[in-house]
Design brief:
By secondary structure, the protein is of the alpha+beta class. Among the domains are: about 160 residues, no CATH class; about 45 residues. The strands form three sheets. It has a five-stranded mixed β-sheet, with helices on both faces. It has a two-stranded antiparallel sheet with strand order 2-3. A hairpin with a 4-residue loop joins strand 5 and strand 6. Helix 3 packs across helix 5 and helix 11 packs antiparallel against helix 13. The chain is elongated, with a radius of gyration of 29 Å.
Length: about 425
Amino acid sequence: MKDEITYKVNVVESSKRRRTIKDNINKKKTYHKESFRIKGKFKQVPIIVLPIDLPVYHLNNGRTRAEQRNYIVENSKKDDFFEKNQENNAQQRIQHEILFRASQDSTANIFMELKRSKDFREDSPLLLESNGMVINGNRRLAALRELYKSDVKTFDKFKQIPCAIIEEHLSAQNIKEIENYLQVKKENKQEYDWISLALEIKNERERLQLTNKQIGVSMGKTEQEVERFYNLIKVIDQCLNEDWKKPGEYDLVMKQEQLWKNTEERAFRTKNPAEKAAIYKVARMISLNSTKLGDRAYRFASTLQKKNNLNTTVKYLADRYHVKEPKIQSDKKSDDPLDVIKPIEGQINISVVNKLPVKKNTEEVILQTFDHLSDSSDKKAALKYSQDLLNKVTVLEQLTMDKKYRSEILQNLKRLIKKAQSIVNKIS
C-alpha cells in the first residue's frame, strides 16, 4: 500500500524565491560538473543548497499530464485548471499528490530508494529556473518532502537540498527542450507513460506551435514517430468522447497500449482515408468491449485490421448493422434513377465506415466477424456449419424444455427458421 500524503505545500512568494536563490548564488558560486543543454548549447550552471519548502512544482509537466487530465474530468474543472494556476497552493498540492504517487511507481521507486539511503546525492541536484520552478526532479522533490515531514530527525539531511540553477531567462519552448532532453532523449528510455507522451506531443504542437521536426529533435524521435503519437491521441480522444462517453478519462484505455500502438502503426502505413478510418473504427469497437474480449482483443484486432481483410471486415459489419452504401449520381444529365455510379468492387466506402456504430456488449459481433474472416477462405466452411447446425438441432429435439425457458427457445427457433429460409432462397 502506498504511503499517505502528509506534506502540505505552501508556495513561497515569487520575488522571495528569486531573492533567496540570487543571494545563495552570490555567496557560493560552485558549478555542477555536468553540463545542461540550454537553448541548443551545453552550459554549466551553479549549484546551491535551498530549503525544502522553497522550490515550486512545474505544473506543465509532461509526465503528469494524463493524471492532471483525469483530475480535471473527475472534478469538473476547466481545461486550463493547472496551466493558468501555476503558483496556486491548491494546484500545487494536487500536483504534489500526483508526483508523490509517481515517485512510488514499481518500475522506478524513487521514494523507497531515498527512504533506504536517507541521503540525497549532491551530484544529482534538482534543476530549477531562477524563479525556483523545478524543471527536472519533481518526483524526487515530492518524495523528499514526504520523507522529511514523516520524520524530521531521521531525514534531517532533506531539510536543505542541492539545486542546480539556470540563471538565464527561459521560454516555455526552452523549458520543454531541456525537459525532453533530460527525461526522454538523454537516458535513452521512456519514463513517460504512453498516454502522457502522446499528450505532451499534442501540447507541444498545439500550445507551443512546434513542428514535428522540432519536437523530434528535442525528444530524440523521428518526425514520423511524433506524427504517429499525435494521430494516436486524437483517435483515443474521439473514442473516449464518442464511444465511452467519458472524455479525458485516459485510465479507461491505459492498459490498451498494444492495441492502440498497433492500430496507429497499421493506420500510418496506408494512405487510403477509407482504410485508415476502418482501422480506427475496429480499434474503437474492440476498445469499448475489451473487458469481455480479454487477451483475445489483440488477436482480433490484428486479423480484422489486416489490409487484405479490411474490405471483408467492413462489408460483414455493414451487413450486421444494416448499413448500406449510398448511391452516387453520375455527372450525366439524366432523369433515369438507374443512372448511377456503382461502387468499385473491392474498395471500402468511407461513408459506410463512418456509419458503423460502436456499441458496448457487442463482443459477439466482433467474434463472429473474426470467425467469418477465418472461414471465408475455407470452401467447406459452409458445409461444416450446416452439418454442425443440423447436429445441434437434432440434439435439441431430444432435450427436455423447461417451462421457464420455452418462450425464449421458441423465439430463437423462429429466428433460426427465418435465417435458414433466407439461406435456402439464396442457394436456390
